[in-house]
Amino acid sequence: MIKVIAEIGINHNGSVELAKKMIDAAKVAGCDYVKFQKRTPELCVPEHQKNIMRATPWGKMRYIDYKYKIEFGAKEYDEINEHCLERDIKWFASVWDIPSVDFMLNYTSVGKIPSALITNDELLKYARKKFDVLLISTGMSNEEEIEHAVEIGNPDIIFHTNSTYPSKINELNLNYIKRLKNKYPDKSIGYSGHEFGLVTTFATVPMGVEWIERHVTLDRTMWGSDQMVSIEPHGLIKLTKGIRNIEAALGIGGSRQVLGSELEKRKSLRG
After folding, report:
1. What is the pTM of this model?
2. Residue 135: which of 76, 199, 211 has the closest Cα?
3. Which of 9, 114, 180, 259 has a Cα-to-Cα distance from 166 of 20 to 30 A?
């Protein structure tokens, strides 16, 4: 059965209460995990961007201050952890730097390296050493970079993705999933979608993905760079229901058998 990840990311805009509502939506929809993003802004924001002024819902502020504004710390993640335990849903985060790896180990043994950082050998090695289960995304990466990341990080799960928001349908290259499955038969292969709609995500199910990840929000009109391509709660229900229906419809393969209600039809028409 495919594992479904609801990527909350930074769509909470620094609000624990919004994050809890998104967790609840993921639980209602039947998702297996919710995921956040954990970074140390001082390390992750390039020097030339730190003092750029940016308009935000809290007024104009330096970009580095904005990043700290929406970044959850121990207090917030303690609440998130408790809420997930109460709702019986698992959670983890994409980690953007080594201190974030250490931070997340207080809560989970699962971690993900985002597409932007799979060329960071130091982070890959450290995350592999620390996490029991390591995921990587492969957006904006060429074949050689993916090969190198798999060699260095030895991830358990590799996600095919396109890192543009929203992704163009004709640039999704879903057939690359087949290549990943053939090339890395000992790895689980997943799909992380940033496109509009659900149809193309559904198309990955019969291709054999074992994980599907989509961004989730309460309202796509909320402020934030990821909101527009995120799925609202009713859409998240459609996503999980569609995945489960396709899994059921695919069946077990093998030789043709007469099953269930067809037996009655066979009897009535053939005697």
Report:
1. 0.94
2. 211
3. 180
